[in-house]
Design a protein that fits this description.
CATH architecture of the largest domain in chain B: 3-Layer(aba) Sandwich
Number of helices of chain A: 5
CATH topology of the largest domain in chain B: Rossmann fold
Structural class of chain B: alpha+beta
Number of domains of chain B: 2
CATH class of the largest domain in chain B: Alpha Beta
CATH superfamily of the largest domain in chain B: P-loop containing nucleotide triphosphate hydrolases
Number of strands of chain B: 20
Number of domains of chain A: 1
Shape of chain B: elongated
Radius of gyration of chain B: 24 Å
Shape of chain A: elongated
Largest interface: A-B, 11 and 16 residues
Largest sheet of chain B: 6 strands, mixed
Oligomer: heterodimer
Number of strands of chain A: 0
Helix content of chain B: 25-40%
Largest sheet of chain A: none
Chain lengths: ~140, ~375
């Protein structure tokens, strides 16, 4: 990175963008899975899990954007959930819907990893800049 | 930076109000032009026409030789600073300052370099992560200023940018704008109704009234040789005193008040019976031991109102039913009801034509 000091003032746009790709993929996965699923008790479980995940992913994206270190590994949790969903696609989803659901889930996992990795990488550089320049908390708060 | 040329610019609003009438002038590169005048005189309309926010009814406006009448604001390369700052409340100082570059999709490193450099100029380098609501009025105005500088615009337009600040902060921010102009020398057009701002900041002042240019000149010219009674009365604080009277032989007579004129002044008003003289309050002098010459230029009056302003004091009294204001040193302060003798500094008296209200020039 040419100007590491810019991380003190600019938001983590990269990780934020990856989190939004994750959200988009999750929406695609959910809609294609629900489209072909048999109507039983599982449909409500899948719906609820994914709706909660959408909200959580959005909140995480907002925290990652402002370099909140506590949230830098949270996308890995979403990646794990999506991996589980990828390996356990409900019965009844088949054909084109299955392919799109799988591609969406894979992309979501990759995006979550990328968001977490980028967040970790930038947080580390930012922390280094703060330590090197002896920058007080008051200068970083809005 | 840029040259601007206004050729017979006219603005008529749809309701028929003629806001600007035949505005002609040229603004040169790196000038600090101040448009000054009372509310509703058309100064902000001129600024908004330059910015492209108002359509020009007639005439030509050129920036660097290119006619821009029909160009949209975005293509004019102009930065405007408003009275209410117009900052984005949800963005930090850094984001506000870099916003114009962000929307142009400039690289992050370039934005960073420019914002950091400008923040040092406007002394906001320690406040870059703050939101506008957590800044003082002066700091907010500096953010608006910095945002314009980051853009590196051809012309800076400022529409009464200091009006929202308290007196102390206004003086400080005024000084900062002057220093900024000295440092980066942009072309600035500044609108104000405050003549102190005009006098202290401008390289040239444009005095306007009712949409018409009254005078264009340096602050010194405008103060020393006002083109007419409007300019004379508008520039200077307290305002100039005017007395209407007759020329009788070598004297100016106004009721009980008379002053002896010098040969130069007599030549100046020759052929006229009635003139108006203008005397600035600071040119009414107090003297403990007046000589014969001073005694012939004496004004006496009973003070009906006086103000002690610190270093100076103003004394107000009536002469021929006209209120006269004198600005004297604080040691000469008098209370209301006391009588004061003042002497006119004749070399600083202005003569005006009662019909046209124009300055009667010295005949060379």
């Amino acid at each position: 990175m040419k100007r590491p000091k810019r991380l003190l003032y600019q938001t983590n746009k990269g990780a934020y963008a990856f989190m939004f790709i994750f959200i988009a993929c999750l929406v695609a996965y959910t809609s294609f899975v629900l489209k072909s699923m048999q109507v039983d008790h599982m449909i409500s479980a899948v719906s609820l899990i994914n709706i909660v995940m959408l909200l959580a992913a959005f909140l995480t994206a907002e925290e990652i954007k402002v370099y909140n270190r506590k949230f830098q590994f949270v996308p890995l949790l979403y990646a794990a959930i999506m991996t589980y969903q990828l390996l356990n696609i409900p019965t009844g989803v088949a054909g084109g819907d299955l392919i799109i659901a799988k591609i969406s889930a894979i992309l979501a996992v990759v995006s979550a990893f990328a968001a977490s990795g980028l967040s970790y990488f930038r947080n580390r550089i930012r922390a280094k800049v703060i330590a090197e320049n002896n920058i007080g908390k008051s200068q970083l708060t809005k | 930076m840029a040259n601007l040329r206004f050729e017979h610019i006219k603005k008529v609003y749809p309701n028929g109000v003629e806001a600007v009438v035949d505005f002609n002038m040229e603004i040169y590169d790196r000038e600090f032009i101040v448009l000054v005048g009372p509310s509703g005189c058309g100064k902000s309309t001129v600024l908004r026409m330059v910015a492209g926010l108002e359509k020009i009814t007639a005439g030509n406006l050129e920036i660097d030789g290119v006619r821009v009448n029909d160009k949209p604001p975005v293509d004019r390369d102009i930065a405007m600073i408003f009275q209410d700052y117009a900052l984005y409340g949800n963005m930090t100082v850094y984001e506000n300052m870099g916003f114009s570059l962000t929307v142009r999709k400039r690289p992050c490193d370039e934005i960073h370099d420019k914002v950091i450099a400008v923040s040092e100029i406007v002394k906001l380098d320690n406040e870059l992560n703050r939101l506008p609501r957590n800044l003082s009025g002066g700091q907010r105005q500096r953010v608006a200023l910095g945002r314009s500088i980051v853009r590196n615009a051809k012309v800076f337009l400022m529409d009464e940018p200091l009006s929202n600040l308290d007196a102390k902060l206004r003086a400080q921010t005024r000084r900062e704008i002057i220093l900024l102009h000295n440092r980066i020398k942009p072309t600035i057009i500044y609108v104000t109704h405050d003549q102190v701002e005009a006098m202290t900041m401008a390289t040239r002042i444009v005095v306007m009234n009712n949409g018409v240019i009254q005078q264009i000149g340096t602050p010194y010219e405008v103060y020393r040789r006002p083109a007419n009674m409007f300019v004379a009365g508008f520039i200077g604080c307290p305002a100039m005193n005017f007395l209407k009277g007759q020329i009788v032989e070598d004297r100016f007579v106004s009721g009980a008040f008379a002053i002896k004129l010098t040969p130069t002044e007599i030549q100046r008003v020759s052929g006229r019976q009635t003139v108006i003289i203008g005397i600035r309050p600071e040119h009414l002098l107090v003297s403990a031991n007046p000589d014969v010459a001073l005694l012939k230029r004496k004004i006496s009056g009973k003070i009906n109102y006086s103000e002690l302003l610190g270093a100076n004091a103003t004394l107000r009294f009536c002469l021929n039913q006209t209120e006269i204001v004198a600005q004297v040193e604080n040691s000469e302060y008098r209370n209301s009801g006391e009588t004061v003798d003042l002497y006119v500094s004749l070399e600083n008296v202005h003569f005006f034509d009662p019909e046209t209200e124009a300055l009667i020039e010295v005949i060379s």
